[in-house]
Design brief:
Length: 210
């Protein structure tokens, strides 16, 4: 079972990261039929997307089991935000072509995102960063990736639509190589700060907001 990192942060958030090494049929066989339905599988046509789907369920199942929680599958609320069936525990998932990661907490709203720093972020930074954020960072691909992933994680934490990234989601200035930074969700009646943890995994940036 290729869980390459499992840890608990100081605020009680648990994280597990799964490196995708298995083949399609091997992964599918690891999921019981009561968790993986034919309808879910039929809705995903691309084989790589199916692999990512399998791994996302397996990593959250692994994390739930390690926390003593019976895994009964994942459902989605009216806003499309996934949640764990049969429990009040909060969760969030992210995946790339190489990794899948999950976080869980008994009560905190959570968000997680994993990306690889690329030049594209430099071209679109004005779309997701405020003027103050743009002024606080140079054209550093890793830092831009942290800003982007931190805001993606805050967006998942919020769990609703109609979010403007450069107005409703804010990230405080941080030093190069930081492992914990501060984020802020400012939308409608909500004005709340969150810890954002940073992991660097083989050229990828993973962030956890909660």
């Amino acid at each position: 079972m290729p869980v390459i990192l499992e840890k608990k942060y100081e605020n009680g958030i648990s994280l597990a990261i799964w490196q995708i090494t298995e083949q399609h049929d091997e992964l599918q066989a690891m999921l019981p039929s009561e968790i993986l339905t034919d309808a879910e599988l039929a809705s995903i046509s691309h084989p790589q997307k199916q692999i990512e789907f399998f791994c996302s369920r397996l990593v959250i199942k692994y994390l739930a089991n390690s926390l003593g929680i019976k895994y009964l599958g994942i459902k989605k609320d009216e806003h499309g935000k996934p949640y764990l069936a049969g429990t009040d525990w909060q969760m969030s998932l992210t995946h790339t072509s190489n990794y899948v990661a999950a976080v869980m907490h008994p009560s905190r709203s959570l968000g997680i995102d994993m990306e690889k720093p690329t030049e594209k972020l430099s071209r679109i930074k004005h779309k997701f960063m405020s003027e103050a954020e743009l002024a606080s960072t140079e054209n550093d691909f890793e830092n831009l990736c942290i800003y982007w992933s931190a805001k993606e994680a805050l967006y998942k934490l919020y769990g609703k639509r109609k979010v403007i990234f450069n107005e409703n989601l804010h990230v405080s200035p941080f030093e190069k190589g930081a492992s914990c930074i501060q984020g802020r969700l400012l939308i409608n009646e909500i004005d709340k700060n969150y810890d954002i943890y940073i992991e660097r995994i083989n050229g990828y940036i993973l962030v956890v907001a909660g």
